[in-house]
Structures are given as structure tokens and as C-alpha cells.
Amino acid sequence: MGTDVSLRVGVVGGGSWGMGLAIHLARAGAAVRLWAREPEVVDGIRAARHNPFYLTDVECPPGIDPTGDPAAAVREAEIVVVVVPSEFFAGTLKGIGRIPPGVPIVSATKGLDPERHVRMTEIVAEQLPGNPVAALSGPTFAREVALGRPTACVVAAADETQAARLQAALGTREFRLYTNRDVVGVEVGGALKNVIAIATGIADGLGLGENARAALITRGLAEITRLAVALGGQARTLAGLAGMGDLVLTCTGTLSRNRGLGMALARGESQAAVEGQSRMIAEGARTVTSALALAHRHGVSLPICTEVGAVLFDGKSPREALASLLSRAARPEEG
Fold first, then answer.
1. How far apart are CA 203 and CA 211, in angstroms?
2. What is the spatial distance between Cα 266 and Cα 54, in angstroms, rounded to a whole number?
3. Distance (Å, rounded) from C-alpha 100 to C-alpha 131?
4. Is 94 a catalytic residue?
5. Given 94, 110, 193, 316, which residue is catalytic?
6. 335 within some domain
7. What total number of domains does the chain contain?
8. What is the span of the domain harbouring residue 297?
9. Per-residue model confidence as pLDDT tens digits over 151-168
10. What is the pLDDT of residues 237-291, one digit of tens each?
11. Is 148 in the same domain as 37?
């Protein structure tokens, strides 16, 4: 298992996760064309082999060739990996233009389209119907992937053969990939865990303790699973790496942007102020609106997501939001 020196990969997105994946793939021997929106990123990698904005202290292997032209990044690629924030995903894909039919497109974006509330692979299927599509998700902090630390995640595709090919092409000993046919479950788990992480960050910021954090993670998994199943996913998927694994990491890890946003909200800081201090986006703040819209459409209860949305958009105080969750009527655990 592992990449081949002849493998050509186009990575669309030069943020922290795009950089982490590009560094991993180049280290494994692939020829990586990396598109970055910021000219400073392209120039920094070319001149000094460092991204000046993301993972700034990690050296970029020689196998990474940066470009400011998205079409150039994918022109000769045998696999295209799209790693841009969900709110820019559809527009970025349009900007790429045509990708040769048969070239697999892998979405590594964990989010939902903020306008239409669709998953990223649905956007790929609409815009590039001649290309196989897959989703890459799981408990992955970009920095640890870039440093070559052991990581396990999931590549999901409806076609088992395609998933196995991507597993072999993109995985290594340190970056262990598992396959899954449940694209819906994998994408929903990757998107909604960010919302639950904001809630656990709020609880941590309020000093509610580790019992409260464990309760939020567990009940958060229950509501993620409810929505995934309503959308056509499999409940068992959410017990794996793309569900529970990613949820635990994002809700407890010190590198979690979404947990960090929750902690800042508990301190009385605004979302705008927190995000103004960093170039990196907390996807959960975008995903919650889509999650609640889908929940309303399908008749699914998402109490934690509802309270996070109330804090972010309705002026509800973090302490009141957690109190609302604690005051909910007692019910059977499976409910």
C-alpha cells in the first residue's frame, strides 16, 4: 500500500488540510500539483518550500508543485483531491473547468453547501458527471498528517472497486485508509461533528467538566446518526472512524478549531472576532444552518445543533444554551 512515483495528484486547496494531504502524498512519492488561492502561498512554497500561512513550520517536499491556476493543478492528474471550505466548494469546482472523464474526484471537505444544503460529493456528481467521486473523512488533524504521525481514516465510494483503488493509491503505513460504500454516512459524520465540537467547546469553556463533555459527545453522536440515517446513510458507519472517531478527536483535541470557537464563545467572544484572528475557518459555524434545514425537512430532532445555532445566530448566551439542553425532558437513551 502506498503511492507510486508515477502517480500524479491534483490537490485543489492550499489551506491547512490541503497542505497536510499534499505533504503526505509527496512524501509517499506522488507528483502533486497544488492549487492555492493566495499568491503568497504559491510563491512561498516555490521560493522557500514553506507555506507562509498554514503549517508554516512544516517543510514542503520537492514533489509539491504549487500553482495559482486551478485548471493547471488538475490538467494531468490521475486523481483530483478537492480540499476547500464547503462554502467555496461549488464555485471552486466551476473554476476548475473540465476534468478528463474517468479521473476520480475525492472530496476531503467536511461540510455541507450553505445554500442548497447538499453534500460535497453531490456537487461533484452534478458538475462532473463523467468522473467517479469519493469522500475522504475521519479523525485527521492536518498538522499530524503533515508530520507523518499515525492516522486512520476512511475513503468512501459507492463503487467498491473504486474505493479500493483510492485506498491503495492514497494510503501508506502511517496514513491508513479503510474503505466504505456509505458515502452519505461518511460525509454527514464529517460535517456534523464540527457542530458538536462547538457545543463541547462551550461546555469546556464554562467549566462544566469532563462528564458533561462525554455526555455531549455521546448524545451528539446520536443526533448525527439520526440525520445520517434519514438522508440514506447507515447507522453503523457513524460508529466508525468517520463518525465516532472524528467526533471524539474534534470534541477533545487541542488543535480543534471548532472546539476552540466554542470555548471562545463561552468566554463572551463573538464568532467574527474569533475568526478574524485566524485564516482558518471553523466549519461547524457554517454547517449548523444546513444541518437544521435538513433536520426540519426530514423531521429529525437535533437538540444540540439547535442550541449551537441559537448561540451563533440568535443571541442566546452559551450558558442559557447548555441549560436548555440540561432541562430537556427525561427520555429513554435510544430516543
1. 10
2. 26
3. 8
4. no
5. 193
6. no
7. 2
8. 184-326
9. 999 999 999 999 999 999
10. 999 999 999 999 999 998 898 999 999 999 998 887 776 666 666 788 889 999 9
11. yes
Burial of 9 (0-12, 13-18, 19+ CB in 10 A): buried
Residue with cell 474517468: 102
Kindly state whether residues 168 and 188 are assigned to the same domain. Answer: no
Q: Residue 248 and residue 279: Cα distance in Å, rounded?
A: 24
Alpha helices (runs of H) in the chain, residue ranges in sequence order: 16-27, 39-48, 70-74, 86-96, 120-127, 142-146, 160-170, 183-205, 210-230, 246-252, 257-266, 271-276, 284-298, 303-313, 318-326
Examine the domain organization and report whether 195 and 297 are in the same domain: yes
CA angle, 87 then 286 then 81, to 5°? 45
Cell of 62: 520537492
In this structure, the answer to whether residues 21 and 141 fall within a common structural domain is yes
Does one domain contain both 60 and 146? yes
pTM of structure? 0.93
Residue 140 to residues 68, 91, 313, Cα–Cα distance (Å): 26, 25, 28
200 within some domain:
yes
Together in a domain, 256 and 135 = no
CA–CA gap between residue 17 and residue 276 (Å, rounded): 19
